[in-house]
Design a protein that fits this description.
Shape: globular
Number of strands: 4
CATH topology: Alpha-Beta Plaits
CATH class: Alpha Beta
Helix content: 25-40%
Strand content: 25-35%
Order of helices and strands: EEHEEH
Number of helices: 2
Structural class: alpha+beta
Distance between the termini: 11 Å
Largest sheet: 4 strands, antiparallel
CATH architecture: 2-Layer Sandwich
Number of domains: 1
Length: about 90
Amino acid sequence: MKYQIDEKQNGVDVLLDEVGGNQKQLLEAFQACRDGRCACPTGEYRKLESIEIEQAPDRITLHLRSKPGEKLEKTEIIKCLEITKGSLE
């Protein structure tokens, strides 16, 4: 799995490529975050206003929108992605 993070004015977009046979597990993990059951050890979740999830063959796109006045930290998002990626191995 490879990922790219694009910082936006109101959040970040995360593009995950080459998800292969892990797509179902990744979608379940991201849905848990959307539902407020995020397992990542970071305070970034409190800054989130919404998470939109798009899927395509071998690709998942996350649109993470921050609450007004908040800024999502790219380094913290990377930590969460690495933890999620590690749980698949």
